[in-house]
Amino acid sequence: MPEASVDGMTAQFLCPAEALIDGGTGVRFTVELNARQVGAFAVRFDGVVHGYLNQCAHVPMELDWQEGRFFESSGLYLICATHGAMYEPDSGQCVGGPCRGAALAKLRIEERDGKVFWVPEAPYRPVEQAVNA
Ligand code: FES
């Protein structure tokens, strides 16, 4: 994952800005949490890119059955494909389904110079690169 500095923090390049269209397919990536690798994703909504752990607030399953498909058909809500929890794309708050009132775990995303970055903040860390991979 190429890196850049955002506010003095090491940001992880995710994708070119144009790869994320409003209400469209998301970009998946991986973060490290408590020495475990956990899936995450970024989507664009109302012009702004938002990032979350790819774990439903109901049962920690990935939201997208079809890779990168996080929005339901109207493009207004994120949806968990497993049991249908609906989330506000900008806050991650669950507004319908089995985990109503809970929320997705939000990640810090920055968009600069036509690129989208994840800025790791505790407790999330970049995935350590395997030395001999
Ligand atoms: S696992 Fe996502 S709604 Fe139940």
TrEMBL record:
Keywords: 2Fe-2S, Iron, Iron-sulfur, Metal-binding
Tagged with keyword 4Fe-4S: no
Protein origin, superkingdom: Bacteria
PROSITE patterns from the UniProt entry: RIESKE
Pfam families xrefs: Rieske
Keyword flag Iron-sulfur: yes
Residue stretches making up the Rieske domain: 12-118
Protein name (record): Rieske domain-containing protein
Source organism: Cupriavidus laharis
Classification lineage: Bacteria, Pseudomonadati, Pseudomonadota, Betaproteobacteria, Burkholderiales
